[in-house]
Amino acid sequence: MPETTAAPTAARTPAHSRGVRPGRGLPPFTGAGEPAALTTLQVLRLLDSGPRGLTEEQAEERLLRYGENVVPARRPPSWPRRFVGSLRDPFTAVLLCLGVVSAAVASWGTACVIMVLVVVSCALRSGGEHQAGRSMAALRELVPTTASVQRRTADDAPPRVREIPVDQLVVGDVVRLGAGDLVPADVRLLRASGLTVHQAALTGESVPVPKNALDAPAGGGAEPPEPPHLCFQGSSVASGSGTALVIATGPDTRFAAAYGGPARRRGETAFDRSVHGIAWTLIRFMLLTPPLVLMANAALRGRGLETLPFAVAVAVGLTPEMLPVIVTAALARGASALARTSGVIVKRLPALHDLGAVDVLCLDKTGTLTQDRPVVERSLDARGDNAPDVLEWAAVNSFWTVELAELPVPDTLDEAILDAAGERGADPFAYDGIAALPFDPSHRLATAVVRRPGRHTTHTLVVKGAVEDVLDRCGSVAVDGADAALDAAHRERLLGLAAEEAAGGLRLLAVARAERPARLGPYSDKDLRGLTFLGFVALRDALAPTATDALEDLARRGVAVKILTGDHPGTAARACRDLGLDPGEVLTAGRLGDLRGPQLAAAVARATVVARCTAQDKARIVSALRAGGRITGFLGDGVNDLPALRAADVGICPRGAVTVAREGADVVLAEKDLTAIDRAITAGRRSSGTIAGYLRITLSSNLGNVIAMLAAGLLLPFLPMLPAQVLVQNLCFDAAQLAFAFDRPGPAAERKPAVLRTRTFLRFITAFGLLNAAADIATFGVLAFASHTTARAGDPAVFHAGWFTENLLTQAMVMLLLRTGRHAAERRATGPVHLAAAALAVIGILLPLSPLGPPLDMSAPPALYYALLAAVLTLYGLALSTVRTHHPALSAAA
Ligand SMILES: Nc1ncnc2c1ncn2[C@@H]1O[C@H](COP(=O)(O)OP(=O)(O)OP(=O)(O)O)[C@@H](O)[C@H]1O
């Protein structure tokens, strides 16, 4: 990759024709527009800036005039808009349709009650979302994003580089970009050194694109879609560094134009598959119900369209209207509690559900499982003997690759090498730095070009990097002060020596060198051929203190762990063993070749460690695991982890991760505490358990009621429940079920990944729905018998009242008995659910007897009915408990 510097050249006529936006003063550069064709000097002049950047005063004045560098992230909608927006929920939409159908057939009572249901659920939902949105925004602010800006305190003061929040950047600012940074605005490069950027968010391109400074971009003709001298907000620096001029901020960036908000597109996640999958299956049932009820009543009872309100009420009876409210409330409560108690920030609400569902977690090694504070242990020559000069050459490389970078931030390996060489008195200043090819994770090499004292006609290329990659570029090897040809046998011996060192847990860098005639032009990867291998630098990186505990916790929770690392397979395997994991057969990404999808997932499923992964390999493996049906989390902290963080169901990073990883992750862990993963997964499982508990209870009792209503509708000469009764009963259920938003499921929900699989789930609700219907039908018998003994035999009002009471009592029982866990001890209800169930039971008994009874066409059943009902309910309770405890396949839906 060439090192490029744009020097101002003669000005050309500005081709900028979109004009200066009135009132803003500065041109609304969108990067993709004509200003791309201006020379660097013209752009600097146009933006009233200079290569040394703005003064603080200028920047402040621009910030006040033009506003913050924030993409207009779809301003928080007003209350009415939010309310109308919640009508888009599919259940609410179906309810609305049913309400319209009822109104069309002049069934005003049904239509009114449906409207009450819609309004109540929309109000609760929009209120809940508003609350959740606010707490999410507050949580996201705890993970700020900054940019390195070069500013001056006064006109004549020297420029200083400092970190400022990204939203404080203004057009005309000069920023520094380094590996792992987000491009904070649309920028034009002034200088670049080995710069490559990921711009997948904008172009979908998965590999990093090289960028360089061009002083006079090709004018005329069509501008290339991706001008190499422009970087756009939303992209991230994969390698190298650069200095750039901000040409567009906030709403004027290309990113804002493309998306109008910082929304990130990702494929279907575990949350979409489970909760949405179940919701859509139900909606299909709901839509099928009215025609089926109408047809059955017409065929068996000769009833016509007059049964439509009843058919509609039956469909409404199936709806879990409170689902969106419970989902939002359960996740938002879980996320806030997690931030409060463990410092873990969940940036996307459904990610908490996905965390609970994760059954395989991929981790990178360096910086996640290790401390990323390497210390040089020794340096060796090609024979494996101590060789201080190898460390000195490595230090020359580290010093000049850092020194010649636009943003001189040494990585931890470079820091360790410089510290160790410094202690031994090495002086990299003895050489003159000519050029540098900074570390590039896809080539796994860093190169410094230096001139040795007194040798003006020769340039020395000093290369350090991963052993295999350096050896691939070597033609000879230094042995006892002389160069010998590097044949295959020699290469194998060197790889063996490296493997021995790595097996001791050391990180290894190979060092090589080449002499070339001095030249003026830039250097690139093509120049790295025929190098002379010098030796290795071996470094020790201690394990993170909490890593062993964290891995144990994950195993206990039924989460498989895979380590995907760019490091040597031996080093990774040793780290794995030291952490108490059996590495099994260690794979290298190279051996996986071009495998994709299920074949790749199958290959990876057997391995615990995949070494020598590039960023793309990590993402490929994560995607393959997901395609193979695993719910996959990825935990990483480096620039080479970004694609995998985005590819996973849930991307997690520690607080100290590079900026792009923090931006790309869904969950940010507290500083250096990996055991927080366990707490985060537990919180996710609790929230999912709450949602599953709600769905399980609501749907099995709703289904039971619907089956019973259909049966009774066909058996009885009158409607078993009037539409208004069905809907009042629904309102009571909904109100009671709100208690689930405050529920905490039992420990069983925390033991294994919480996945709602549609098939298992439907099996569960069918089984318990049938049980519920059986209790209902037994109640019909009991009612018929009890009323037979009185003068009011065959009175529909008595039947309605008796059934209403039974329905609410069985619902209350289900709330207590079907929460979570197969064992009685785990089913103890917490406060809110307990109270709600009790309230439901009281209403069920008293409402038909109260003054509200007659208007709802209910009148008190005889005392005998209550005694018989108690027997039916006891049997029902026993049956519920027995099936729940002894049928493991049913409890798998938990
Ligand atoms: N600054 C550097 N200069 C030269 N080579 C480096 C440098 N940093 C890393 N390498 C080499 O490149 C390899 C891959 O590095 P990369 O950053 O992709 O992964 P890693 O840090 O080893 O592991 P992980 O993926 O677990 O974070 C390293 O193992 C090392 O051999």
From TrEMBL:
Role according to the record: Mediates magnesium influx to the cytosol.
Transmembrane segments: 91-124, 761-785, 797-818, 830-851, 863-883
Membrane topology: Multi-pass membrane protein
Pfam families referenced in this protein's UniProt entry, alphabetically: Cation_ATPase, Cation_ATPase_C, Cation_ATPase_N, E1-E2_ATPase
Gene3D superfamilies, sorted: Calcium-transporting ATPase, cytoplasmic domain N (3.40.1110.10), Calcium-transporting ATPase, cytoplasmic transduction domain A (2.70.150.10), Calcium-transporting ATPase, transmembrane domain (1.20.1110.10), HAD superfamily/HAD-like (3.40.50.1000)
EC number: 7.2.2.14
Matches recorded under PROSITE patterns: ATPASE_E1_E2 (PS00154)
Domain Cation-transporting P-type ATPase N-terminal: 34-107
Source species of the chain: Streptomyces lydicus
One GO cellular component term: plasma membrane
Residue stretches of biased makeup (Low complexity): 1-14
Record's keyword terms, sorted: ATP-binding, Cell inner membrane, Cell membrane, Magnesium, Membrane, Nucleotide-binding, Phosphoprotein, Translocase, Transmembrane, Transmembrane helix
Similarity comment text for this entry: Belongs to the cation transport ATPase (P-type) (TC 3.A.3) family. Type IIIB subfamily.
Name of this protein: Magnesium-transporting ATPase, P-type 1
InterPro entries xref list: ATPase_P-typ_cation-transptr_C, ATPase_P-typ_cation-transptr_N, ATPase_P-typ_cyto_dom_N, ATPase_P-typ_P_site, ATPase_P-typ_TM_dom_sf, ATPase_P-typ_transduc_dom_A_sf, ATPase_P-type_domA, HAD-like_sf
Molecular functions per Gene Ontology: ATP binding; ATP hydrolysis activity; P-type magnesium transporter activity
Major localization listed first in the record, in broad terms: membrane
Region Disordered: start-end pairs: 1-34
